[in-house]
Amino acid sequence: MTEEAKLQEFEARVNRGDKVEPGDWMPEDYRKNLIRMISQHAHSEIVGALPEGTWIPYAPNFKRKMALIAKVQDEVGHGQMLYKAAETLGVSREEMINDLLMGRATYSNVFNYPAETWADVAIIGWLIDGAAIVNQTKLLLGSYGPYARAMERICYEEGFHLKQGYDAICEMMAGTKNQRDLVQDALNRWWWPIMMFFGPRDKDSVHSAQLMRWKVKIKSNDELRQEFLGKFVPKIRAFGLVIPDPELRYDEEKGEWLFTEPDWDEFKRVIRGNGPMNKERIAVRRLAHDEGRWVREALERFVEEGKMA
Ligand code: FAQ
């Protein structure tokens, strides 16, 4: 079969809704883009555990602490599942992690901002997990089998994360003025990074067209952002919280949300390693990587000696 014929057959399969599996023929660009996207996603989960993780010792009570520990563990587990899915495409976990530690790989913009108060933990759990669910419930319909299957489990757990964030918001909003002010302050700081979370506007998106053609992405960045606004703006406002965008409103005629564009120059700076917390996040990951070396070496020796598969 010619390369052209293989491509046609591949695209016909994808259009029928068949899943692509690791041993199947796939265009090189499909493979490369999936490695980029899945590894970025894995890095986001691992680094994404840090802003909330720093609050574990300061959780306001025992129940909140247990829920937060479980959530943070889940996020790290998601990273492991995603590294495994990416490995099926012929890249090793070691290469991916080295790329992250050397600054060659990127991860989600949102995790390069500090979690300043306990209200930030609640906002991350409610709105960043909420945004992740909007995105990931589409990715689980995607064409690459191992990624889609990982997404099923991940989405299930993200649902719990969202509930624990929402529950913490409910408690704070029913509390003292000081607690409500902390939530408002956290919302003011996280709103713009969350608006950027879905990626650049469709007209500036580099990969969307190709990825949607191959059903890796099911919805475009703008479609996801609109869905997020539709789901969450009414809920945020129902608490009496003020979204820090005076232009934000639903346009009945256009059938879409109108909003102020976030600062896309800031977005570029942040994803290229120059956000408020990038250096610290990578330094913490490097420390964990170095301190875990003896565990990896011991496991490798076990495998070599045939004591473990
Ligand atoms: N951050 O051409 P597009 C979570 C980059 S998991 C950083 O539109 P694409 C769970 C993009 O890579 C969060 N970079 O890209 C959790 C590209 O640069 P490149 C992560 C971004 O791939 C919750 C350039 O901009 N989720 O939150 C971002 O078609 C709480 C042009 O963009 C995933 O990774 C961004 N936000 O669409 C954990 C989901 N957006 O690589 C802990 C999988 C764009 O050419 C606590 N990924 N860029 O140099 C996706 O769905 C897609 O990759 C998008 C971007 C939608 C993120």
Encode the helix/strand succession as letters: HHHHHHHHHEEHHH
Query: Treating each run of at least 4 consecutive H or I residues as one helix, how many helices?
Result: 12
CATH class: Mainly Alpha
Strand content: under 5%
So, CATH architecture? Up-down Bundle
- CATH topology label: Ferritin
Straight-line distance between termini: 38 Å
Question: What is the mean predicted local confidence, pLDDT?
Answer: 97
CATH homology superfamily: Ferritin, core subunit, four-helix bundle
Choose one word for the global shape.
globular
Q: Widest sheet: strand order?
A: 1-2
Q: Structural class, judged by helices and strands?
A: mainly alpha
Features:
single chain; 309 residues; mainly alpha; Ferritin; two-stranded antiparallel ribbon; 12 helices; globular; binds Phenylacetyl coenzyme A
